[in-house]
Amino acid sequence: MELKVPPVLVFLSFGLIMYLVGLFLPVGYFDFFGRFLLAKILVVLAGFMGLVSVYQFFKRKTSVDPMHPEKVNQLVTSGLYKYSRNPMYLALLMVLLGFGLYLGNAFNTLVAAGFVAYMNRFQIIPEERILLAKFGNKFKSYQIATRRWF
Q1: Nearest CA-CA partner of 149 in 71, 74, 94, 73
Q2: Where are its TM segments located (predicted)?
Q3: CB–CB of 148/25 below 8 Å?
Q4: pLDDT band at 26 (very low <50, low <70, confident <90, very high)
Q5: Partner residues linked to 105 by β-bridges
Q6: Strand, helix or coil at 141?
Q7: Which residue range(s) make up the domain with 82?
Q8: Residues 6+ apart with CB under 8 A from 71
């Protein structure tokens, strides 16, 4: 399963699971003042973060293909990447959290946690293994200085 499923497809699958949880498991329903506004803010911030992080890769003329991290020819460690090693995946998580808020089912936080676990195991760890082999100590130093998600 490592690097076999495109992250966007994983994201959409977990979004569908969230929708189904909200539809068929009304037990965890919650509501609070500003819930929809907070959901919108998360999604807008996620969109901004995703666009900026992709732009940083294009600016450095390196690959953004998550299925083939070996194509990366430069290590991007500035901008958003100074604070998160995976701002593109963090943006996807933020959209899921915003969607979970919109749906208003507390169990969707568990689905979002499942997304993080899946991404760590089948996408991020394999990517990091390839980047460590390719960039050596430079990547190891980056791993020590910068957290995986935030």
Answers
A1: 94
A2: 6-25, 37-58, 88-119
A3: no
A4: confident
A5: 29
A6: helix
A7: 30-63+76-145
A8: 63, 65
